[in-house]
Amino acid sequence: MTPPAVLRSLHTLVPDTVLAQDEVRDVFASQPDIGRLAQRIVGASFNGSGIDTRHTVIEELSLAARSDDPVFFDSTTGALLAPGTKARNEVYVREARRLFVDAARGALQADPELQAADVTHVITVSCTGFHAPGPEYEIVRELGLSDGVQRYHLGFMGCYASMPALRAASQFCAADPEAVVLVVSVELCTLHLRSSEDPDTIVASSLFADGAAAGIVTARSLPPGVRGLRLDGFHTAIAPEGEKDMAWTIGDSGFEMILSTAVPQIIGETIIGAIRPLYAREDDLVAAFDEGRIGDSVEHWAIHPGGRSILDRVQERLHLTDAQLRPAREVLRQNGNMSSATVLFVLQSILADAREGERVAAMAFGPGLTAESALATVVGAGSDAA
């Protein structure tokens, strides 16, 4: 019997430039092209986001920065500028390449037994820029991986994309028990922020941020003292009524996010049906699920923090405790919504304190409206974990 795949050696990082949410709010609210109604929406969206700080690769967005030739923000006038998609993508190519390589290197360095020569597959994930040769190629070259490494890139799928990446990695390991799959997500969402009176654009501007995460998926034996998540199962569901409420398109002035205020309600109305098939594979879990006590059987919940209202609705519908939502809310508070990388940040936070044998549910939402979910079990933590 093929041993199960385990996600281990999670490594996360964020750019150096920190954006204070209240300062960014004031910048957006002071733009000359928005009226009083839009100003009120800016205030409500930023103040109710559940975010204190975000990170960006764009140094000039910091109020302390000064640039003689600003591209995104003119600090002398306080004006948000509108560079074209080409200019934004050029920054993506430069900055994402570094973050992809650094995150991948960090995951490998965090593993005491695996080396670059052990990697058989690389899966990269991003929806905030494009270039070819792509990031999976850069990782192979910069880390000295074998030219024969199988490379895959999941592009433009949105916030849920790390979940199918982990599922694909698990499937590779099922096909080859010696496989070592490096999964790396980098999202530079702030490249596409813009001033607008459109409520969906304002909501997106109040949430999105930059970040990177990487991990290793393999069925090889877990070294002593190393924690991981045994990947037990995955499920995909679609709420077609939300297709127009969450979308991601390419415009002349960057990528354009549609994130309507109806999304939390749609998730709340459909989440039970969306995730029940995953729990139905285990008799004890489906019984607890149907009795409204799933939180008693699955201790940890890595919910993608698409926004505070989404977390509120998931907590309410699944009857989860404040403690179970704390990792997701803390990632949102400190880092904002980093699209596909975010759920890996939450999983890393959970894994730091979880106990051997405890169950972990992971969920992420994105365009479609698509809900990706997974079940995992903590391994290698020991019974004395804090």
Biggest sheet statistics: 9 strands, mixed
Q: Give the structural class.
A: alpha+beta
Count the E strands: 15
Rounded to the nearest angstrom, the radius of gyration is: 20 Å
User: Order of strands across the biggest sheet?
Assistant: 7-6-8-9-1-10-15-14-13
Sequence of secondary-structure elements: EEHHEEEHEHEHEHEEEEHHHEHHHEE
The CA-CA distance between the termini, in Å, is 33 Å
Mean pLDDT: 94
Binned, the helix content reads 25-40%
Low-confidence stretches: none
Using the coordinates shown, work out and report the CATH topology of the domain at 228-379: Peroxisomal Thiolase, Chain A, domain 1
Helix tally equals: 12
CATH class label of the domain at 228-379 = Alpha Beta
Instruction: Describe the global form.
Output: globular
Q: How much of the polypeptide forms β-strand, as a percent range? A: 15-25%
- CATH H level of the domain at 228-379: which superfamily? Thiolase/Chalcone synthase
If classified by CATH, what would the architecture of the domain at 228-379 be?
A: 3-Layer(aba) Sandwich
